[in-house]
Amino acid sequence: MNKLIASIFGIGYLKGGGTYASIVTCVAIYFLWQVPAVLQPLPNVLIGLAILLTGIYTGNKVEPFWGKDSYRVVIDEVAGMWITMLFVPINNIKLLIAGLILFRFFDMVKPLGVRRMEDLKGGLGVMMDDVLAGVYANLVLQLIIFSGLLN
Asked: What is the pLDDT of residues 97-112, one digit of tens each?
């Protein structure tokens, strides 16, 4: 069960699984936008926290089988993408696409300490580089929103 969750039902086995997991998360967010109560600040943060804690737990469980920060583990991309879209206005597909691009950029390039997060042990190390990439993507997205570039 831990492998299934960590790989987001097998997405992690695909080549480019991290990108696919990010896209699937965007699709889920898009459909959740149709239920605005779910994406109010408190439930939204609680969902993100649940994803993070689940990822840490399952990352710890699968590491003995798959090794440190295996490509198969993509729940970290789900958490990072979720964080990217925290406090972003709903029903704006341009912002969702921009968030996806920004998150994947920060996740792949790993600037400003993102790579150092991978040095943390176990599931925490698996999750925190993507969490920090999501924070950076969210900050840039907030600047885009504030500037009115994608209204």
From this structure: 999 999 999 999 999 8
